[in-house]
Structures are given as structure tokens and as C-alpha cells.
Amino acid sequence: EVQLVESGGVMVQSGGSLRLSCTASGFTFDDYTMHWVRQTPGKGLEWVSLINWDGSTAYFADSVKGRFTISRDNSKNSLYLQMNNLRSEDTALYYCAKDGVRHGFLTHFDNWGQGTLVTVSS
Amino acid sequence: QSALTQPASVSGSPGQSITISCTGTSSDVGGHNYVSWYQQYPGKAPKVMIYEVNSRPSGISNRFSGSKSGNTASLTISGLQAEDEADYYCSSFASSSTLGVFGTGTRVTVL
Hints:
The complex is a heterodimer. Chain A is mainly β. Chain A contains no helices and eleven strands. In chain A, strands 2, 4, 5, 6, 9, 10 and 11 form a seven-stranded mixed β-sheet that branches. Chain A has a four-stranded antiparallel β-sheet with strand order 1-3-8-7, with no helix packed on it. In chain A, a hairpin with a 6-residue loop joins β5 and β6. Helices cover 0% and strands 43% of the residues of chain B. Chain B has strands at residues 9-12, 18-23, 35-40, 47-50, 64-69, 72-77, 86-93, 100-102, 106-110. Chain B is built from no helices and nine strands. The A-B interface holds A 35, 37, 43-47, 50, 59-63, 65, 95, 100, 105-110, 112-115 and B 1, 3, 34, 36, 38, 45-48, 51-52, 57, 89, 91, 93, 97-105.
């Protein structure tokens, strides 16, 4: 059974930094692109970032480009999101999600964690 | 990259069929077949219902089907059941600086 468990979400002040983690199990982690997707409380979903299976390629939404970085440690089956210069609009529930196709890029999100809540206070 | 446009709400009676539209552009929905649909209950993570326009993951009821015409994708739920009451989001790969885009979301209500 695929499991994705996010951690690291807390309340932080505007301009601050935070690192989110996602630990994966139940599948061959280094075969899959991984994503971060966020959801503003009571609102919709927003794709944030992806990193491909070997960590050589990463992409970001325009809204976070230059402030967020993504990384992975395949030896630890772990995904990370480093968030810098946080703004109030970054307040959201952050989900870790697995791409649906082995060695796919951005096909669909076939497994999701339960999310970790980031609150940015001004 | 703007969010894909979905109706805010759709409703139907048990047993009826409903269709949710998802309108984008030639850079996303119209230009790629990586269109997917997600069901989300309150307080829960999204769950994929349709991927690659019209494919169903194993375990998903065949009451759910997907299609696409031009820049608009659609999710049809046939034989509507009370358990289908949830929020639904479409998503697409996009040929833009933001590679992934979601729809605005649709609340499905079973009357």
C-alpha cells in the first residue's frame, strides 16, 4: 500500500522560512516524479512544484518561483520543499503527491498524503 | 497560468447523470491528453477518478467517465448516488511556465 506522510507544517511569520518533508513507502520511490500541491483553506488546489525520479529536473509554479526549492533523497524515500521568504498567500495545506506513471513527468497524481498545514502570519 | 474554469456547483437527483465541464486553453486542456479528475471529501485528500482524459484507475466505478473536445474536458457521473456528493477538480499538464494547472473546483450536490 502506498503511503505518503508529510511533516514540517507550522505557523511562521511573513518573510520566514520553512522546510516540509514527505516520507514515502509502498512503492519504488526512485522510479517516480513527485509533486507538492497546496490547498488554501476553503479554496481550490494549486500545483506547486515537481522533481523528477532522479532529482535532476525540477519545476515550480510562477507563484513560488525563486522562493521555493524542491529536493529528494532516494536513499531515504523522502521528498522535501524548502520555502523561503514566505508570504501570507502561501498559507495552505501542503500535499505531497506521487505521479501516476513510472518515469512520467506530470501525468496525474495517483496517491496523496494527508497534508501538512503552513500558516504564514503577518 | 490561470486556473481552469469549472462551474461552481452542479446538482442532480439520485440515478440521474450529471456532467462537469473544465475549460482551459490550447496550452493546457486542448494541447495535451494529461487531463485528470479528482474527487475530494471535506477534510480528506483528493482522489484520482479519471486520468489521461478518459482512463479509470482500478477500483473506480464505471459510473465515472471522462471526455474532451477542444479546450474543454468533461467528467460525467451516471447513476448519481449520495456518496458522489463531494468537490471535484480537473487538472492538466500545461505548456507554460507553470507546468501543472487545476480547475476552480465544482461542488456536486445530490438532491
